[in-house]
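W.,

You were right to be curious about this one. When I first looked at the sequence I had no strong expectations either way, so I just let the prediction run and decided to look at it fresh. Below is the sequence, 693 residues in total, followed by the output.
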Amino acid sequence: MSSDPDARAEALLDQMTLDEQIGLLSGHMPSVLKPRPEGIQRSAGWVPGLRRLGIPDLFETDASLGVSAAGRRDDQATALPSGLALASSWSPELAEEAGAMIAGEARAKGFNCLLAGGVNLTREPRNGRNFEYLGEDPLLAGVLCGASIRGIQARHIVSTIKHFALNSQETGRMVMSAHLDEAAFRESDLLAFQIAIEAGQPGSVMCAYNRVDGTYASENAWLLTDVLRGDWGYKGWVMSDWGAVHSAAPAANAGLDQQSGREFDVQPFFVGPLKDAVVAGEVPTARIREMAHRYLRSMLACGVFEHPVSNGTPDLAAGAAVTRRAAEAGVVLLKNDGLLPLEGVRRIAVIGGKADIGVMSGGGSSQVVPQGSTRFDPPPGAPRWTAGVIYQPDPPLEAIRARAANVQVAFDDGADPARAAKLAAESDVAIVFAVEWATEAVDTTLVLPDGQDALIAAVAAANRRTVVALETGNPVFMPWLGDVGAVVEAWYPGSEGGKAIAAVLFGDVNPAGRLPITFPASTEALAHKALPGGDLPIVNDRGDTPPFDVDYVEGADVGYRWYARTGARPLFPFGFGLSYTTFRYANLAMDGLAASFDVTNAGARTGIEVAQLYLTGAPGRDGQRLLGWARVALEPGETRRVTVDANPRLLADWSLEARAFVIAGGEYRVAVGPDAATRVLEGATTLLGGRVD
């Protein structure tokens, strides 16, 4: 038998009828099937196979941050930190390890397809799903997403990449139309997908809900056929998101291969209506064969046929070790007036954030609810199908008490700011946990809810030695920043998050997280000062607004690039993060696309620096782009020569005439530093120019 997945798929198709081919092109959502077939577990998706030819069923689970399995509660599952936490590590190796861990747990739960690989860029910092994704930069997001997919598929599990494309906010996500000129699109959001697909070779691409230039993503031939298959040569299959299909023939002819969770659409378009379209000559039989071929080809290429899954017991101890490393690597130290790490304290006040119960996690389809989690009712306006506000079971209070032996640790829930301030005044240090819940289907405001800013202000007024530990899904404003001694951003830190936060606070782990997203100082600095569509009424139970357009006026200048273009000053820049040691840079030398320089640990603690290389000027234009980075672990006093190879597509511009990335000949200016706003070393290189293949 041939090992070529294309040849094997063709051999199977030669034995199949048209009806059998069409049978592979739609799936169910078992969680809503009534009755659910015997032996089919509750999950996000199920595509029946074909037993007579040995084609296995496809069992799908949401899995961006762990095996969600359609919100099963009190589950034997490991919760990874949020995507923004993983992106804060700037570590492809850790992303690959995390992907492999999730795939292992999925295999033990009987799933062979993970609805993972979220790589939508943070164009809108209020987007309720930002926590699932990997930040605002196409290179960072693409590299980490590709690494995660590699880890998943190494375990013979299919991974998707999603949501293709321009799904940048939740408000109006089913009806909005995103508008962006092609060159800017190619240099930003599409580039993130392109890099990730090249690095990870995902078995499937999942469409977005929204429209792109007026056409639904699931019917957008330019996206699905011209770019994805034509320009990028993608060989896998394109699946819809659940409830994102609007037609049979137009969607199939545009490049959609499979209707997912057909119970969520107004009709099963890719069953009877698709067959009718073939009979009527609206969809060629060759197109049906191609759709089925792409599906089978990916399953064969990923080893799904040869490596069947079966129900077992996940290795939760191994999962805990991985998620602990990811959580520790993702904590970002944003401010430190010498207060951290905590040493020599006798009385600690821990305040707020339900730190006595667990750590906050994000809501929606990615929600993982491990055993021991605590659930609270969702706030008004949250989607009715959400599992609620979940605190995963690793309370920071417990971890702090375990770490701070012989130290008095008192807790106050923060409900009464005056009472919390009194406890803070009686303590050597106060640690305020502040939380912001974000979820799929709802956007945020960048303001801490429930009066937490007032709580922090009251505590800081009573004790300047106040640490704020943030568990958020997005950036938040910090009106109290100048009054506190330290701030750490822990994001949603996962099922070992309490221990990870404590390890950073006490210096057992030297914080190495760096922001993958800019923290704005105010909405006035944003490309859209008001959330697009945020003023429109909700018109149905699904949460839709009337249709509206979003013009992305920032073009390719997403996040830190927008700040560089406008000169606005952020609260914290992209790439920023402090350490308990200090690093120095010296001796930059350029050799074509390679930048070499020395990094020295000038402090007294072992630490990790994320040295970042940026383009700052090019022939005929200014601007800023991340070209590459090096994550360097150094002992005290150690110096290492580092070489960062600039990604050529980030030096190039998309040429509409050449239909390719093209580097203009001339001088390119670069800078090296610890974040997007800090240029420690500057240099230049001269390039001949040409097409980037």
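Here's what jumped out at me. The first strand starts at residue 45 and ends at 47. And, maybe more interesting for your project: The CA atoms of residues 299 and 342 lie 51 Å apart.

Coffee later to discuss?

I.
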